[in-house]
Amino acid sequence: MNLLIQNENLKIYKRKRTWILIAIVALFVLLQIINLHTSGSPAASEDWRAQLEQENSWLTEETSAPDALNIEIRQAEKQLLLNQYHLDHGIPPQQSAWNFAVDQVGNVVFAISLIAIIIAGEIVAAEFASGTIKLLLTRSASRTKIYCAKYIASILFGLALALLGLLLSILFGSLIFGFGGLDHSYLYVSDSAVGEIPLLQALLGSYLFHLPFMVLTVTLAFMISAAFRSTTFSIVISLLASVAGFVIAIAMNGWDWTRYFVFSHTDLTPYIWGDPPVGEVSLAYALVFVLIHLAVMHLVSYTAFVKRDVT
Amino acid sequence: MPLLQIQDLTKKIGKKILVDHLTLEMDKGEILGLLGPNGAGKTTTIRMLVGLISKSEGQVLINGLDTSQHFEQAMAQVGVIVEQPDLYKYLSGYDNLILFSRMSKGVTRQRIDEIVQWVGLAHSIRDKVSSYSLGMRQRLGLAVALMHKPLLLLLDEPTNGLDPAGIRELREHLKLLARQQDVGIVISSHLMSEMEMMCDRVAILQKGKLVGVQRVSDMVQDEHAQVRFEVDRPDLAVQLLQSLLSGEQIDVEQEQLRVRIPKNRIPEISQKLLDAGISVYGVTTIKRTLEDKYIEITGGEPH
């Protein structure tokens, strides 16, 4: 089994295209930080109080706008509380590599998921397209083992990309902000109150709790790849579903029906802060909901992969 | 125990029967050909043997192991080439071998080097497969199929697309394997001359059914032979032959007579012709080829 996974890894990493995809992830992180740097972060200048107050009044205006979305109001309210916290406690808002990394987790995981979809979407289908499936399935390894090896390799690739994204956002962040600041606390809002947790904990927690998105989208691409044996089909459909799911989950954040929408449960970070998007939804509920989706997808693709004739 | 036992192997898709209760056995060191027109079920049969296509009915035993129940153990003793050997083009030949060696037990680096030498790819094994010619790919496919020292080799239309030199090379390799290493080989093809040169036995399939199994040596060393006598007075010769061979059909074509007689009567009959004052310019035995047999068995349906 181990050897089969090694084989899949060899097939992934010995392709030039994989490295182009990895380079895209690096480029994405770099763009994020350039974007942040050029748009003028609230650096700890002398007049940070004035800046925050100005931002607060602007935010208050926004929340009272008649066409404001649920999510906009929530975000604005959180920012207001955070800014107020800074003002009340006399802590100037400080940007560090670590802060940057925590704030970027959601974006990074979203981006690496889209890249991982491309690999997962062809890991089975490409074997059919190239005809290599005939050799692969006529060695002394059962189809079940090959299926599992391929799935594990897809998830591992996603995890590797996530780790790369994490390290790069810290590295690129430190080029601008320096490595310092890890001893600061990360501020978050829960139940209309501001809490503090250690930055490292916030960073690792955020990564871990964002990963369900990657697992779900990779599994979707893998399912279509294994069941329908078409690379294009699986990549296009999963990309569309992932982007749509991601956007809808954000736009519809807080609506009651989203408790039955799987993409609303792929970002579990609110549970770190103790601030679930929909009331009465627990972490366990969210996890089980995602797991059921994964199980159903595997049921479809595993059956198709193991039973169907290779002609 | 036979190396390969096929019992009542059947494939149905809906109402269509692609392979119909095929029963066949073969031993170590034997080269068995599956011959038949396109659509006779050769490819389906081979793919069922290796588990690419599920069986509707029947059983396949490889070295006594049922492929449905002990797929992994059974396949450990089998090497397969299905049509063109499709390998990973973006990897080097060597990486391809490493990849497949990990899927079989006991294939060492040493063994890989050995098999690379044997198929004659030592110079290009580090190059990407995308740069290989079709013949080289076929050789690499053979290396993949043989690296784990299988007892049974299954080849589906392996000569498709190969040039004459490639076909000849493959034939030599396969014969060596069967004679020296006692590997049993099943090979499907619709090219009869090729099968005649390569195989010990030929199983002829038609519309999914096994219609005959022929030992190639039997066909070549048939006791009866078509014999052509070239004479100066055919009318007289016909009368004489008719009296000698009561009931046999005699074809006359200008000055040539064609009869089917046991080989050992050729000297006697020649002598009789000469004694009757007929000049004999030539006596030729016409070999019955696999093609004749094939046409005879399949009822002359062209492939």
List the helices and strands and how they pair.
The complex is a heterodimer of chains A (311) and B (303).
Chain A: H1 2-13, H2 16-38, H3 48-63, H4 70-89, H5 97-123, H6 125-130, H7 133-136, H8 143-177, E1 185-190, E2 193-198, H9 199-228, H10 231-251, H11 270-273, H12 283-307
Helix pairs in contact in A: 1-8, 2-5, 2-8, 3-4, 5-8, 5-9, 5-10, 8-9, 9-10, 9-12
Chain B: E1 4-13, E2 16-26, E3 31-35, H1 42-49, E4 57-62, E5 65-66, H2 71-75, E6 78-82, H3 93-101, H4 109-119, H5 134-146, E7 152-156, H6 164-181, E8 184-189, H7 192-198, E9 201-206, E10 209-215, H8 216-220, E11 224-231, H9 234-244, E12 250-253, E13 256-262, H10 266-275, E14 280-286, H11 290-298
Parallel strand pairs in B: 3-8, 3-9, 6-7, 7-8
Antiparallel strand pairs in B: 1-2, 1-4, 4-5, 9-10, 11-13, 11-14, 12-13
Helix pairs in contact in B: 4-5
Task: Report on the architecture of this protein.
Chain A: One of its GO terms (molecular function) is ABC-type transporter activity. The complex is a heterodimer of chains A (311) and B (303). Chain A has 12 helices and 2 strands; from the N terminus they run ααααααααββαααα. With 311 residues, chain A is mainly alpha-helical. Chain A has 2 domains: 2-40 and 95-187 and 198-306, no CATH class; 44-93. A two-stranded antiparallel sheet of chain A has the order 1-2. In chain A, α1 packs across α8, α2 (16-38) packs antiparallel against α5 and α5 packs antiparallel against α8 (143-177). The longest helix of chain A is centred in the middle third of the chain and has 35 residues, at 143-177. Chain A is elongated and about 70 Å long. With 303 residues, chain B is of the alpha/beta class. Helices cover 35% and strands 29% of the residues of chain B. In chain B, the strands form 3 sheets. Chain B has a 6-stranded mixed beta sheet, with helices on both faces. A 4-stranded antiparallel beta sheet of chain B has the order 2-1-4-5. In chain B, α4 crosses α5 (134-146). The longest helix of chain B has 18 residues, at 164-181. Chains A and B meet through α1 and α7 of A and α2, β6 and α3 of B.
